[in-house]
## 1
Amino acid sequence: MKQFKGRPLTGGSAELEAVVSKQGVNTLATFQKSALTGAKQVIASDQNNPDLFGKNITGKALCLPITIGSTTGGLVIQTVCAMKINPKAFLFAEHVDSLAASGIVLAKVWEDSDVIAVDLLGKEFLDAVKTGDRLLIDEDGTVTIL
C-alpha cells in the first residue's frame, strides 16, 4: 500500500479502478466522440495517447499529469459529467489547469455531479500507479494504492 497526499479540489471519497496516462490528456480528443454520439460510456478516442486510447474511462479514477489541448476542455468535462459518463475522479500529479478546474467546478455546481478532483499528488504518484490498480480516495485528498 502506498499513500499520496494531494489537494482536494472537489470533495468526495471512493474506491475506484485507476486508468493512467503518463502524458497530458487532451480532453477534446479523449471525450468528444463519446459525447457527440450519446454513448453510454467514454471510450477514450485520442489516438495520440496510447495510454488511454480505446479504454473505458467512465466511472474510473483518471490519473494524469494535467489536461492539455483545446480551450473547450472545461466544457467537454462539464458535458460528460452532465451525461453521467465521466471519470468518477480526476487525479492530477501537477497543479490542475484552469480549463479542467472550470469544467469540474461547473459540473459540480450546475450539473450536481459527484465528480472528485485532487491535484498536486506528485510525479511519484504517476510513477507508482498503474492502470487497473484499485485506489482509495479520501475527502482530505489522500489517495491510497491498494
Note: The first strand starts at residue 2 and ends at 5.
## 2
Amino acid sequence: MKHIDIIDILNNDANMGKSVTVCGWVRTSRDSKNVAFLELNDGTSLKHLQIVLDKAKFDNCSPYMPGGTSLKVEGTVCEGINGGVEINADAVTVLGACPGDYPMQKKRHTLEYLRTIPHLRVRSNTFNAVFRVRSVVSDAIHRFFQNRNFVYVNTPILTASDCEGAGEVFKVTTIGYSDKYKSEDEYYSSDFFGKRAGLSVSGQLEGEVAAMAFGKIYTFGPSFRAENSNTPRHVAEFWHVEPEVAFADLNDIIEIAEDMIKYIITEALEKCPEEFEFFEKFYEKGLTEKLKKVASEKFAILDYTDAVELLKKSGEQFVYPVEWGCDLQTEHERYITEKICGKPVFVTNYPKDIKSFYMKQNPDGKTVAATDLLVPGVGEIIGCSEREADLDKLLSAMEAKHMTVDEYHDYLDLRRFGSVPHSGFGLGLERILMYMTGMSNIRDVILYPRTVGNIR
C-alpha cells in the first residue's frame, strides 16, 4: 500500500501541511476527553510519530489505542505543540489488532526477559536502536573495503576442514543416528559428501586462496563454533568479517584493522546520532565521547611478553594466574586495556603453542607474528596474524599439533605455487557492536542468539 516512511515525515519539512498516509505499530497511547494521542513507529526511525485523533471526527478511538496494534493513518502533517511534527488524523484503518496479552505492553522490560521473546523484542526502543546501528556498521564495513580495491568473496559454509584446529565444529550429516556402521570412517564414507563435513568456523583458508589471485579480498558472513561456553561474549553463530591481503606483513594488517575500526565508528556516529543518545542515556554514560576518542587517537601496541610482565607486576589478584605462555583471559585483557593502556591495544607476538598452526613463526622460535585487538569493556574483538608462507615451517607446525595434513592439500599448494607474504584478520561483528552500543551481552546485538542449550 502506498505510504510515506515515518522518518521522512519527521525529517522533511516539505511534507508540512500536506495530506499523507503513514503505517506503523502503536507504541504508546493516551486518551483525554476530546482528543486521543498515539505514538506510531514503523521501524524507519528511533523516534515515534505522534498521531492526533480529534474525537469530533472519530466516534470510537478504542480499537486504535492498544499497544502493538498496526494502523494505516491518513491525515495532515502539522507542527506539534511542543515542536516537531505530528499528524492530525482524518482516517484510521486497523491493519492488525493486538489483544491485551501482548507481551510488550510495559514501557521498560529487562533485557533478560526480552531474550525470551526474540520475535517481539525487536519492537522495543533498545533493539530498534541496536539493529539500526548494526545495519549502518555492516554497510560501512562493505564500503571501507570496496573503496580500497578489496574483492568481496563468499567462502563456503559447508566445509571439510577445521580452520582453527580446535575441534569446535558443528557436524553436518544426512544420516543421523545409526548403529549399522562399524566405524566412523564407514559412517562418513556413506554420508552425503563421502567424508566428514561441518559448518565453517572461519572463511580464512578459502579467503587465502582468493587473496593469492586477487591480492586483497574480504569475506563477510556467518561462522559457527560448537564451543561449550555460556558467557556474555560467546554465541554459536556469529557474523565474521575476514580480510586477507597479499604482500602484507603484520604491521600492514594492523594498520588496516585500525583504519577499519575508526572508519565504521565514525560512520555510525554520523548516521545514528539519536541511537547513540539513547545508548548513552540508558546503557553507557560517556559512550559517545569514548567512541570519538577511539576514532581520533592512535591505538596502542604492546608485546605479549611485556604485557605478561606488566600483569604480574600489577599486584592485581587475578582469578587466572599469569605466566608467560598462558592464553590471556578476559580479566587480563580488560586490565590491559582499562588500566595499563586506557585505549584499544594490539597485543603482539603471542607464544606459538597457544596460537593456530597457520601463523608465521618469528625468528625466536617461540612466538608467532600474531596480534589480538583488545578494547576496554569487551576484550578481544579482532584476531590477526601474518600467515606462514614457508611450506616446511607450515608442515612442521601442523605436525606439532597432530593435524591430518592430507585434509589441507589445497591450502598447502598455496605455499608451493607462488607463495607470498600475506596477512589477515577476523572481526566478530557482534563483539564490535557490543563495544559501540554499550550492550554488555552478545545475545543483545544479534537477532536470534544461538547458545548452549538454546535455539529458537
Note: The first strand starts at residue 19 and ends at 31.
